[in-house]
Specification:
Strand content of chain A: 5-15%
Radius of gyration of chain B: 32 Å
Strand content of chain B: under 5%
Helix content of chain B: 55-70%
Largest sheet of chain B: none
Radius of gyration of chain A: 27 Å
Number of helices of chain B: 8
Largest interface: A-B, 76 and 53 residues
Distance between the termini of chain B: 94 Å
Oligomer: heterodimer
Largest sheet of chain A: 6 strands, antiparallel
CATH topology of the largest domain in chain B: Helicase, Ruva Protein, domain 3
Order of helices and strands of chain B: HHHHHHHH
Number of helices of chain A: 22
Structural class of chain B: mainly alpha
Shape of chain B: rod-shaped
Helix content of chain A: 55-70%
Structural class of chain A: alpha+beta
Chain lengths: ~650, ~170
């Protein structure tokens, strides 16, 4: 009964969404206050209805109601509660309901916090946002209905893929979707601006916090996926340039660019047309990611052709919104007044460089991801575009971006003095040279490029700190004056510093683990010892064990360093009950210098075990770096000038961040 | 093929996270096994380098070095056999491509078909440079061009005035 209730709520949500799509926009067109005001309550009703549908589905999962086809196909009664909950979005249908729920939440946020928005802008935004909801609600109800029943109901479900039964992956999709879908607001605002034919700094002030929030969620979502791959897949890889990863990485690149161009638009009213275009493109890339992942086109063009119903539907949604958005842009962009002239050497100029490089990087990833699909459907030729291609094209594009990064925040708006900025970065430059020389001297092996990589990472980190040091006049005024200046710094300045610092730390982690990882693959018998990266691992034997829904073989390893005990690692091989599938759980010891990573393999006929040891230097810096980026975003978001829904004082110009 | 795929631990699982559900499977990650490793360290190092660039044909965008699919195992052994037989790295790759096609190369070869792929970053860079050039320049050029153009009659009148001027001077 609850399932039917949820199903009904979802259908009602579609009807509300249709009304919300039409009425406020019509009201804005007719300048009818009452019709425009319809948008806000409709958005709230929509989110309530989608939430009811979502919770009903979750109820079916939690109570293991296998009369629901979706639950039977993707859950199992023996699963721990947390994975029965996360199982809701661990499958196609349920994840689309989550997609729409997040979309509706963002729409309702505009309705609730957008009291100070101009009425017509708010009405148009809510209409556009609801049009996306209509498309996806139709998609769910027509092609991917999670509420379909089974008769007779099976005795038990088929279970969730065991490698997805993992805490990091349980929360990976919601964060990813909050990122993907969060960019829908930027899209809706862009379309609304084009419909109205005008946009101003207030527009950017509204768009920027939402974009920042979406960017933060996408950052942490991608990082979670990468972290999961690192410890769950069993050899410590953390990024594979897989099309699925690229699908989430492209909106991230475009969203990062959008975040920075919206800054220019807010502060200087420049780059308006570009920012609008970028807002459209960022969400289009999110839609494309949804299409790539949902349609099955990635596994093969033919798989897509065999069961095209869902794929074609999402493709149609993508074409409609991307094409429609771009067509409207082509028609109306000319009407947007250009503002703020600036010299190429300026804060604006540095942000343009950021945008150019991120966009080129995004185009590169896009072409690399879609090329095999396009080539196969056009000529039938099958090629692979894998990690070597992306490493050769993407990485070189990041180098100038990272080198230029510390200059950006040190530049003044309109016209900047590059020599002065360089002067302030002398300490950072010297430090990175020292690191370069040290890395070169200390590591006798490893690729010769790695020391450059470290130097760049340190340059970015030290550059970020230098900028803050300069702002608080560290060293040139008494210390307590510097402290006073530090406490008075706007939070957004802290946020920028942290986010940039996080980028540098992440670069160091990437370089460290890519350049200097070591591995040992061997057969071991109990009592034997193997050394790797200064650690000695002694195999103590393996014993069977039983988990809630799996059986496992746990290997025991004592780890010592220079004779002193360090830790005890217990990698295991698991066999899940439903579906019966093996996984391996790595034993990981995290030290400051890097991760010691042990994997237990198959037992040989003669009793020995195949084992694999890895040492991944600095690998944690990758995720600590992304976490710091996330925190930077959060601190920036808490700045009262950016706070979502903070009242905008009419008639007063935004308080400028002191650039110098 | 399907059964093999099901047995294969693949990163396709990430896709599953998005919701493919139970169709794909993953699990044990063993890839290179101790028995496969060549005693000659230099040769083994070359084998690893080569297999990192070869696609496991039954996996999702995964190299044979990372995969524990039976086919990946066969290919790894094959690579090592060729290396032991004295082939150069390129000869090994050519041997595999001759058997499995260019699809097996994770780094697509430079050819007419992949021209656009390899030049795309450069094209994007040139396009960006062009857009930047035009959008930074016209700000200075905008003032003269904003003056309305002369009509044909006005131009003729101007010409006569100028030539009059010239004749008077001469």
């Amino acid at each position: 009964m609850i399932i039917e209730f949820g199903h009904f709520a979802l259908i009602l949500a579609l009807l509300v969404a249709v009304a919300q799509m039409i009425v406020p926009a019509w009201g804005a067109h007719m300048r009818d206050e009452r019709l425009m005001a319809f948008g806000a309550p409709a958005a709230v009703a929509q989110v309530a209805l989608v939430l009811i549908a979502f919770l009903s589905l979750m109820y079916a999962y939690v109570t293991s109601d296998f009369s629901v086809a979706n639950v039977a196909a993707n859950s199992h009664s023996s699963k721990p509660l947390i994975y029965r909950i996360s199982g809701v979005w661990g499958n196609h249908e349920g994840s689309m309901v989550l997609w729409v729920l997040i979309l509706a939440i963002f729409g309702a946020a505009v309705a609730l916090f957008g009291r100070n928005l101009p009425a017509s802008l708010k009405a148009n935004v809510l209409s556009v946002q609801s049009s996306i909801a209509v498309a996806f609600l139709l998609f769910i109800l027509l092609t991917s209905n999670p509420f379909e029943r089974l008769d007779p109901a099976p005795f038990d479900g088929r279970g969730l893929n065991p490698i997805l039964q993992d805490p990091a992956l349980a929360f990976h999709p919601p964060f990813l979707y909050m990122g993907y879908v969060g960019f829908s607001l930027a899209f809706s605002f862009a379309i609304a601006a084009l419909i109205e034919g005008r946009t101003d700094a207030a527009w950017a002030r509204w768009v920027r916090p939402w974009t920042l929030l979406a960017w933060m969620c996408l950052t942490i979502g991608i990082a979670m996926g990468s972290w999961w791959a690192y410890y769950e897949l069993g050899w410590g890889g953390w990024w594979f340039w897989d099309p699925v990863e690229n699908a989430s990485f492209m909106p991230w690149l475009a969203g990062t660019a959008l975040l920075h161009s919206a800054l220019v638009m807010e502060k200087r009213e420049a780059l308006k047309v570009w920012t609008i275009l970028l807002a459209i493109l960022t969400f289009s890339l999110s839609l494309m990611g949804t299409f790539l992942v949902r349609s099955g086109v990635l596994s093969s063009v033919h798989a897509f052709a065999v069961d095209p119903e869902r794929g074609v539907f999402v493709l149609a949604i993508m074409v409609l919104f991307t094409g429609g958005g771009l067509a409207l842009f082509a028609l109306r962009a000319r009407d947007l007044a250009q503002g703020g002239v600036f010299s190429p050497i300026s804060r604006e100029g540095s942000l343009v460089l950021n945008n150019v490089l991120l966009t080129i990087a995004c185009v590169t990833v896009l072409v690399g991801t879609l090329y095999p699909l396009a080539l196969e459907s056009l000529t039938g030729a099958k090629i692979s575009v894998g990690a070597p291609y992306f490493n050769m094209t993407f990485v070189p594009l990041m180098i100038p971006l990272l080198l230029a990064l510390p200059f950006g925040p040190l530049m003044a708006w309109k016209r900047a003095d590059i020599a002065a900025a360089l002067e302030r970065l002398v300490a950072a430059g010297l430090l990175s040279i020292v690191v370069f020389v040290a890395a070169f001297a200390v590591t006798e092996r490893g690729p010769w490029l790695a020391p450059f990589g470290f130097a760049i990472g340190v340059w970015v980190m030290a550059g970020a700190l230098s900028e803050t040091a300069f702002r608080i006049k560290l060293g040139s005024v008494p210390l307590n004056e510097s402290v006073r200046r530090l406490t008075n710094l706007p939070r957004s300045a802290f946020g920028t510093m942290l986010a940039h610092f996080g980028v540098g730390l992440m670069v160091c982690g990437i370089v460290g683990t890519t350049g200097y990882k070591s591995e040992e693959i061997l057969l071991m018998r109990p009592g034997e010892t193997k050394e790797i990266a200064g650690y000695a691992l002694t195999f103590r034997g393996a014993a069977p064990s039983k988990g809630p829904n799996y059986t496992e073989t746990i290997g025991a390893f004592d780890v010592t360093r220079n004779g002193a005990p360090v830790t005890h690692l217990e990698p295991s091989k698991r066999l899940y009950d439903a579906p019966p599938q093996p996984t391996s759980e790595a034993g990981i010891y995290a030290a400051w210098t890097g991760d010691l990573y042990a994997v237990l393999g198959d037992q040989q006929p003669d009793g020995a075990f195949a084992v694999r040891f890895y040492f991944h230097p600095l690998v944690r810096c990758i995720w600590i770096g992304t976490l710091i980026m996330f925190l930077g975003g959060a601190i920036s978001l808490s700045d009262r000038r950016l706070r979502v829904g903070a009242p905008r004082r009419a008639g007063r110009a935004p308080v400028a961040v002191p650039a110098e | 093929m399907k059964a093999r795929m099901a047995r294969t631990r693949t990163r396709y699982a990430l896709l599953a996270a998005f919701a493919i559900g139970a169709a794909v499977s993953a699990g044990q990650a063993h890839a290179v096994t101790p028995q496969e490793i060549l005693p000659d360290k230099a040769l083994e190092h070359r084998a690893r380098e080569i297999s990192g660039g070869l696609r496991c044909l039954v996996c999702q965008n995964q190299s044979i070095d990372d995969s524990d699919a039976p086919l990946a195992h066969d290919l790894r052994v094959l690579v090592r056999e060729r290396l032991t037989a004295g082939d150069s790295d390129q000869q090994v790759r050519d041997f595999i491509v001759a058997r499995y096609g260019e699809f097996v190369l994770l780094k697509p070869p430079f050819s007419a078909e992949t021209l656009l792929l390899w030049f795309m970053p450069l094209i994007a860079m040139l396009a960006a440079a062009g857009i930047l050039w035009t959008s930074f320049r016209p700000r200075d050029a905008a003032v003269p061009s904003s003056a309305p153009d002369l009509s044909a009659e006005e131009r003729a009148a101007l010409d006569t005035l100028m030539s009059d001027d010239d004749t008077k001077k001469s």
